[in-house]
Input
Amino acid sequence: MHLIKKSPINGGPIMKTMKRIFLLSSLFFLPLLASSQHSVTMSNTGLEASDAYHAESLYHMNAKWTNQDGESIQLSDYQGQPLILVMFYGRCTGTCPVLMQRTWKLYSEIDEEIRDRVQILAVSFDYKNDTPEALKAYADYEQLDIPGWNFVTAGHSDIRELAMLLGVQYRERSDGHFEHSNLITALDSSGKIAVRSEGITGDLTGTASEIEELFTTELQ
Amino acid sequence: MTSNRFHIVIIAVLFLVIAPATGLGYEIPLETEPDTVTVKVLGTNADSRFEPQVVRVKPGDIIRFEVEEGMHTVTAYHPDNRRNLRIPEKAESFDSGILTAGDTWLLTITRPGEYNYFCMPHERMGHVGTIISDKTFSNKRAPIF
Output
């Protein structure tokens, strides 16, 4: 497990414009890169996460997501509160079940007094198969259909954009399964990346402390 | 008479020395000494399995999980792992985390009862196992006459 701490990027208006141009052009070229078997570093447990773009709030994303109950959700709905984000897919027979277990462990470590106000957004890459019904069945089976937990998906471009902003890499294999990064991200109440925990092995104590501190501070 | 007694003693000594080596007679169970039982973790996806799927041990024994292929976990049916309780009520939950080929993970069973466990990635494909811990169980050889 690697713990990657928040590292804000500063810059003037020109820099911000350049970053936006880079961001938009990356959205176009990333799927082309992802289709090449040799262009992405792969470990035995998934793709390595890339750096994330920290300067902008993710709560400004316009994408509409649909959750396990068929409800529409936007990231702006979380404005003013922190959020834990994780990307996965329901049919995964590799690392996702463990990634979800680690997300659950981090959630469980948060003080009971504020835990019921903690929001988790689990975003599926697999928009073809993870329908609201499939996500509902997944949440039920995993005993995670609990208040504050939303399992969502959206169109391909929205998923790709969010993945890029988080630094999650993924690509669909010919068998319909996905290679992907294993990353848990916590956003602060303004939607900026505050904590990132990559991997599916290793001690979670440090990350749990950081996330608990984030939620304790921001929910008071 | 003395000679007969001498022969009986010789035969008894020979029996005690030779019998254990040949598998004859009793072995004295050392109940305080833990045994190690190996469970192989095999396969990938739908072929994933624990072998043997059911093992019998006594409290204090160690289960040695040896992963030969694939990527698996050894996880207790316990609310800590978001599953209904299917291990003895006072037993501690367990979860190996991800194990890959070549990894070995040890689990010590301390209480009697039935412990059901699963592999997180392949549970839906039936990758589950059971440990039965019984105070009266001994995996020492049974007497053969």
Observations:
- Helices of chain B lie at 2-22.
- The CA atoms of residues 6 and 12 of chain B lie 10 Å apart.
